[in-house]
Design a protein that fits this description.
By secondary structure, the protein is mostly helical. The longest helix has 29 residues. 58% of the residues lie in helices and 2% in strands.
Length: 778
């Protein structure tokens, strides 16, 4: 679209849809979509005079809408400013001062939300422009930050939007943000320590993000301040656990307590206090995770020991007992209700520590592996905690590899995985056992026995209903751990465990073809995520086979081949990839062997020759049409050489000892001879392998006329071989008769210098095409 068309479209929008303030809100979606589709405000190329006039009308109309007395018209003007900032940098520079000044005023809530997001985007675009920062941002941004702090105490609905704007301000302009640093940090802590906000709510997430950015980018930019804040978070979490674990007997040698943030007092009644304390623990743990995960402006030191002591205190909760009989047991049971959520948050903290600290946790792997196995043992009926534990094990294996597998008990871990991924088959229902037995008592025969089937569902599903023990998410996470375990140390798994795993994988995949009777179980088995994990584990089981049992590669080939016909495109692509891996395993590749290079004319002549023809007949024919058999000693495969090399090969054969097959001397005719072509032809040599005769002189190949009896015997010994592929020409009757006489009057005789002067008659092998009329002429 050229500039003139763009100017006409923009002028049409302004004229038809923006001059009625009372109805403009109904046209805002259409206007925004049209501008986005045609990019009417962008100035990529040199703008014409018409386009400049249209853009000026657009900016004038926006300023008029901002000053309108109609609320919806002002909202429409703010929406037009946002799309102008996205498409045109020229409009941004020209109107930055006027728009920043006119937007900061009190408006209704839905307009204030648009104002805050628009001003945030407007100031962020000045980040890499020092001149604009000096003239506009330095003057307007402190005013905007103060406006947000005041607004946070007046309008609670806008708190997520306000905290999001403050977090961007402290990240992009930390120096300008310092006057409101403490106030913003206090605002975030009040939200996190309140205990009434859910930790996954939008408000809690924005408070965590804003607090983390204040610590990482704002305030006192030094390592001690960052570490002090992190220790305060750990101390606050320990203070919360002190109140929660009041009814249990913990270890007496507790680490030194750390000071934490000041928190509001909770009620003495555990029924009221425990939900608030659990919420505080979750929010502060998420803040701790964010603090050690996000990047910092300076290198910092993470207090690893204090964090691990906090985690071990929660992980050991199942090893402690009820303290005394003086405590209320109901409070202990109420505590046990929230323990899974505490453990899940500790798993998140440990995952963040592994990603941040890395190899520095290597010396703690043995303790961490024991904690992981303990969590799996205590979470058999807690599926969410089990999924979290499996995800943590996956992260540890990916991060530490064989180091963790040496520390953790692989057999115990595999036992948990097998329990989660195996299928259970219900015993078949025997209808014959429930058939009522006829008796003489008519009254009793009319009554139904208690064990008799009273509905038809059991009869329909009476042939072995298959159902799963674990949830689909648990299966996916367990199969992911199994895949990494096979990839890391698959060959070192014990034979019994490996056999069980392979059987389960094959049975789970093959059970998809069960009868349509089990529709309910088939839905569970056909979950796409679970199926993908099963196929991935099967592939890694093939890549890392066991050394003590047969491979399951033949079964996997059939499964992957059938998977290419699956309805799932993701599964089809994976099966194609898996088959390529199996092909590399099944057919090992070796480097190409060096062969004698053929000349260019030979390559051109081989266009009408196949490997089958070369392997089934070989011959040598000189220019004078005299047949000569050249037998080479060293090669065990067929080599193709040009006719010019015949002389050199024969001279070498006179010096070296040749292996001559006395029982099977081969004579062949080339298709070019039949066509009367006397050009140079390739010579194909084959070595003998049965009887060896030492020769000191040249090997003489002579033609001898055969008697009639010998000719009759040769007819019985003829062996047909397919003719070379190429163009065929019909021979005349005279040529066929000449060819018949010539073939049956040839005999190869071998003369040696040894004492034995025996002449040997060698049967002929006639290399003749299958469609020849040679037999008919006889």
């Amino acid at each position: 679209m050229n500039s003139m068309e763009s100017a006409k479209f923009l002028t049409t929008l302004i004229t038809n849809y923006t001059f009625n303030d009372n109805k403009i809100e109904t046209y805002v979606p259409f206007i925004l979509e049209t501008i986005t589709q045609h990019q009417l405000l962008s100035s990529k190329s040199e703008s014409s005079r018409e386009q400049q006039v249209a853009l000026h009308k657009w900016c004038t109309r926006i300023n008029s809408l901002l000053q309108s007395k109609v609320t919806n018209a002002r909202w429409a003007g703010i929406c037009f400013i946002k799309i102008s900032l996205k498409q045109s940098g020229e409009l941004f520079i020209q109107n930055l001062q006027s728009w920043a000044t006119s937007l900061m005023k009190s408006e209704p809530t839905f307009i204030l939300k648009e104002i805050i997001t628009t001003l945030t985007e407007l100031f962020n675009k000045t980040q890499n422009r020092p001149e604009l920062q000096r003239e506009i941002t330095t003057q307007q941004l402190p005013r905007f930050n103060t406006f947000l702090i005041k607004l946070s105490g007046l309008n609670k609905e806008l708190l997520p939007t306000i905290l999001n704007a403050l977090s961007h301000s402290v990240k992009n302009f930390p120096t300008i943000f310092r006057p409101v640093n403490e106030q913003t940090q206090k605002l975030c802590l009040n939200i996190l320590l309140d205990g009434t906000y859910y930790y996954e709510s939008e408000l809690a997430k924005m408070a965590i993000e804003c607090f983390t950015r204040i610590i990482n980018f704002g305030g006192k930019l030094n390592m001690d301040y960052w570490k002090l804040t992190l220790l305060k978070l750990v101390g606050s979490l320990n203070n919360i656990l002190d109140r929660l674990f009041d009814t249990i007997d913990e270890e007496k040698d507790m680490p030194k307590k750390l000071t934490g943030f000041e928190m509001p007092q909770v009620s003495e009644d555990y029924v009221v206090a425990f939900p608030i304390l659990f919420s505080r623990f979750k929010c502060l743990s998420e803040c701790l995770i964010s603090l050690i995960s996000l990047p910092t402006s300076l290198p910092v030191q993470i207090p690893v020991n204090q964090i691990l002591d906090l985690l071990y205190r929660v992980y050991n909760i199942y090893d402690v007992s009820f303290v005394t009989n003086s405590k209320d047991k109901n409070e202990y049971y109420t505590l046990m209700l929230g323990i899974p959520s505490l453990l899940m948050n500790c798993n998140k903290i440990l995952s963040a520590a592994i990603l941040s600290i890395g190899e520095h946790l290597t010396r703690h792997l043995r303790v961490i592996s024991s904690v992981l196995l303990k969590l799996l043992n205590n979470s058999k009926s807690r599926w969410l905690l089990r999924v979290s534990t499996y995800n943590l094990i996956t992260l540890c294996m990916q991060k530490y590899g064989i180091g963790l597998t040496n520390s953790i008990s692989s057999s115990t871990l595999l036992s948990f995985i097998i329990d989660d991924i195996e299928i259970i088959q219900k015993s078949q229902y025997d209808i014959s056992n429930n058939t009522p037995v006829s008796t003489n008592n008519k009254k009793s025969s009319k009554k139904k026995e208690s064990s008799q089937i009273t509905n038809s569902d059991a009869l329909v599903n009476s042939s072995g209903l298959i159902y799963l023990q674990a949830d689909n998410d648990v299966q996916c996470s367990a199969l992911e751990v199994l895949k990494i375990l096979l990839q890391t140390c698959g060959a070192s798994i014990s034979s019994n465990k490996r056999l069980s795993l392979d059987n389960i994988l094959l049975s789970r995949i093959l059970s998809q073809n069960i009868s349509s009777t089990y529709n309910s179980s088939k839905i569970l088995l056909n979950e796409e995520n679970v199926n993908m994990k099963l196929y991935e584990c099967l592939l890694f089981s093939i890549i890392s086979p066991s050394e003590y049992q047969p491979t399951i590669l033949p079964h996997a080939l059939r499964i992957f081949s059938a998977g290419q016909n699956s309805q799932s495109t993701q599964l089809q692509s994976f099966c194609s990839y898996a088959l390529s891996i199996c092909d590399l395993i099944y057919h090992s590749r070796l480097p190409p062997l060096e062969r004698s290079s053929a000349s260019t004319p030979i390559t051109q002549q081989l266009e009408h020759t196949t490997v089958e023809n070369i392997s089934q007949h070989s011959y040598i024919e000189n220019n004078d049409n005299s047949n000569m058999l050249v037998l080479e000693q060293s090669q065990k495969t067929f080599d193709i050489v040009p006719e010019e090399a015949n002389t050199l090969i024969i001279e070498q054969n006179t010096v070296n000892k040749l292996e001559i097959n006395i029982d099977k001397a081969i004579t062949a005719e080339e298709n070019n001879v039949l066509r009367g072509d006397n050009k140079s032809k390739p010579n194909i040599m084959e070595d003998g392998s049965k009887n060896n005769i030492s020769i000191d002189d040249k090997v003489n190949m002579q033609k001898v006329e055969l008697p009639q009896s010998t000719s009759l015997e040769m007819k019985k010994k003829r062996i047909r071989s397919p003719s070379p592929i190429g163009e065929k020409e019909e021979l005349s009757k005279e040529d066929k008769e000449k060819d018949h006489d010539r073939v049956f009057k040839s005999l190869r005789m071998v003369d040696t210098n040894d004492d034995s002067d025996d002449d040997m008659e060698i049967p002929e092998i006639i290399m003749e095409g299958p469609d020849s009329e040679f037999e008919d002429n006889e």
